[in-house]
Each structure stands twice: as C-alpha cells, then as structure tokens.
Amino acid sequence: MKKVFFVICDGLPDRPIKELENKTPLEYAKTPNLDKIAVDGLSGMMHTVDIGVRPGSDTAHLSIFGYDPYTYYSGRGPFECAGIGMDVKKGDVAFRANAGTIDDGGIVTDRRAGRPESTKFIVDCLGEIEIDGIKFILQESLGHRIGMIIRGLGLSPKVSDQDPHKVGVPVHEVHALDDTAEAKFTAEVLNKFSKLVAEKLKDCPANQERIAAGKLPANVILFRGAGAVPEHMPSFKDKYNLDAVFVAGGPLYKGIAKVLGMTVYDFDEASGVTGLWNSNLQNKINKALELSRDYDITFVHIKAADTLAEDGNYMGKVEFIEKIDAALKSLADENDFLFVITSDHTTSSALKQHTGDPVPITFKGEGVRTDDINAFGERECSRGRLGHIRGENVMPIVIDLMGLAELFGA
Ligand code: ZN
Questions:
Q1: Which of 117, 97, 268 is nearest to 190 (CA)?
Q2: I want to staple 393 with a disulfide (CB 3.0 to 4.6 A). Which of 40, 162, 264, 389 is the partner?
C-alpha cells in the first residue's frame, strides 16, 4: 500500500490583485517546487463544500476528510475545545469562549478583558459548576480564550451566542434556535450560568488584584459557536481503516483531527512551529516526514497564508507562499508517496475574507495520470485534467490511488 502525504495550505488561493499584475499571490510568487509537483501530477479545482459555498476552515476540513458538514457540523466549539486538549464527548455541547469585561451596568466594555496572559485565574475562581444537572467544564487557553463544555442529559447545540460580538451592549440572553425542549432547556441553563458567573467573578480576589494593578477585571465569560459531536460520527480509522497523523500548529485544526480520532502531533516551543507567518515550516515538514513512517496517511496543515490574506497583506502572502514552496523542496522530487496538495478555501486579500471560489488541487505519485499544466495556481489548475471536484470526492480518489478501493459491481 502506498503511503499518502497530504498538505493543506489554509486560504492559499486568492483572487487576482491589480498590484500583482492581475495575478493571485499564488500565481505571482516564485514557486519552482510547487510547479514541479503540478507538472508531474494531475491537477484540477476543488469546491470544498459545494459550488459557490463560502466554507469556514472547519466545514472545509470536514469535507476534505469525507465528512459531510451538513450532517456532522453544528458549530466550531467542539473543535476549539478538543484543540486545546479538552476531552469532548459525544452528547456534549462545546463553545468558544473569551474572558471579557463588563461595567457595573452589565455593558461589555472589552471582549478580551485587556488580554490577560492566561485565563487560569478565572477557571480557578469559578471552580466546579453544576446547574440543573448540567456540568460546566472550563479550561484556560491562550490569552483571553477559554474552552467551555457543558455535559449532561437533554442538551442541544441549537442555541444562540451569548457573546454580543461587540462592545457597548450587554451580553445577549441565549435563546433556543429550534422548537425542541432540549434547545430551550440548554438556553435556560446557559442563562443561569451567565448570572452565576457574573456574581462569582465580581468577588474573585484575582480580579480585585487586577483592578488594584490598573488592569481590567475579567468579570464575564462570553461564549459562542455552540456545537456538538454527533453520536453517529465515525472516526477516520473506522471510516477508512487508515492510520492518520495530523501535523498542525493551530488549535482549531488539531481539534478537528482529534475529534476524528487521528493522532495529533504537538510541537514544543523549541521547534519554532507556531501556526503563524514566522512558523518554521521546514521543521514542520521534516517532522511530518519522520512521522509518516508510522502512518498510512500524513496530513500537514499550514496556516499563515490565510491569516495574511485576512489582514489584506497580499505581499506577505506572496512571501509566505515562497516559504511554503521552499519547505516542500524534498517532496517535489519524491515519488514514494502519493502526494496531495490543496487548500481548504480561497481567502481574498482584497475582501479580507473567505470566498466561494474553488481551490487548486494536485495529486502526484507513481502511476497517477498527468496532464499538461505548467504551474500550481488558480488559472493553471483549472486547465488540469482532473477537472472540478468537490471536497467529498478527495478521499475516494485517494483510496483508489492507494489501490484500496473496492470494486463496485462485478
Ligand atoms: Zn481555512
């Protein structure tokens, strides 16, 4: 069986930019290694979720892994929580949360509580909370962020955000997003939680110390993105009978892989792998190559092209793409793997957001058909013989190219 090395460059494609001779950053960047991979491989365009759908990173990744997000996705919370090492169980409802600041009138004045270094003091101050038989599990994350899981019988992820997403207004009352008793109960419990947290955090000694030191108190937990892991969601191993390892810096992506039961590699600080523009991509690729010996399929997620585009920094994106290209040099000449390179969605540097434009994808390896394109980019790959596929087609193609597909019919 051929091993698979699969690279997902977040938000890599873009739209043409006037200042770049009307090319996209991927087309403008000098990428000899990516181009060689495209020349040697079979390319096309992928509509990750569906034609014209603007995917989030989470729904896009689920699609690429072969999990229909319309079936399996309810919100980002479970992936964020799993990504920071929380144990998300089926039936839990999980949220992304921030420590924030409210004034005496309950108005949100800072959504990040002056950006504390850690939220451990809040988690400690709140201690164990159980309301109407529902356990609240909180865990500190980077900076102002907190992971929040609620666990118990009769919960639903169909509830609105309590986080108002802006300052100058009170926190939102949570309400049910459908007519089920579960959604109504979940909203009720969450509203009781908001009140209890406000009381507890007001008297928290760590907050008194923050105020005395001229800092903003963290006296509210703002939560959003309710989601649940569906009971019937199979693991990646159960679905494909393949051992997968996922190599990434960003918590969301690691969380998706963890929820699917993949092995997730955690880099230490010395590795320089950060998920940011300054990440040490060569170390990341080298580690992934080392891990690939023990796994059937190795996924590598590279984040920063997306972040740079969301900042409108198209020249930074060009430079980062050249850095990706350099890190992939050894793989351009490699033929032992089935190599796949693609992205999860387009991120427009002009619009500073994801768009529904399809993304380039190339499969390369011994026995894989080729075509006559000359570069890895939006225009070139749209001429590729793979044509247009959807995210859900990727894993069946991979399985077939690995020689593992079962014959349909006789
Ligand atoms: Zn993304």
A1: 97
A2: 389
The residue type of 193 is F
Q: What pairing do the DSSP bridges indicate for beta strands 244-247 and 297-302?
A: parallel
* Radius of gyration of the chain measured on its C-alpha atoms: 23
Sign of the C-alpha dihedral, residues 142, 219, 112, 86? positive
Q: Cα separation of 226 and 174, whole Å? A: 11
Tens digits of residue pLDDT in 172-216: 999 999 999 999 999 999 999 999 999 999 888 999 999 999 999
Question: CB burial class (10 A; 0-12, 13-18, 19+) of residue 172?
Answer: middle
Distance 371 CA to ligand 1 centre (A): 28
The pLDDT > 90 percentage for the chain reads 88
Measured over the CA atoms of residue 305, residue 310, residue 315 and residue 316, the dihedral's sign is negative
Distance 120 CA to ligand 1 centre (A): 28
User: From ligand 1's centre to the CA of 147, what distance in Å?
Assistant: 20
**Separation CA 72–CA 301 (nearest Å):** 21
Name the amino acid, one letter, at 54: R
Which amino acid makes up residue 217?
A: P
Tens of pLDDT, residue by residue over 106-136, are: 999 999 998 888 889 999 999 999 999 999 9
pLDDT of 1 above 80: no
- Report the DSSP pairing between strands 338-342 and 244-247: unpaired
Categorize the per-residue pLDDT at 80 as very low, low, confident or very high, splitting at 50, 70 and 90. very high
Residue 83 CB partners (closer than 8 Å, separation 6+): 250, 251, 252, 253, 254, 255, 256, 258
Q: Ligand 1 centre and the CA of 91: distance in Å?
A: 26
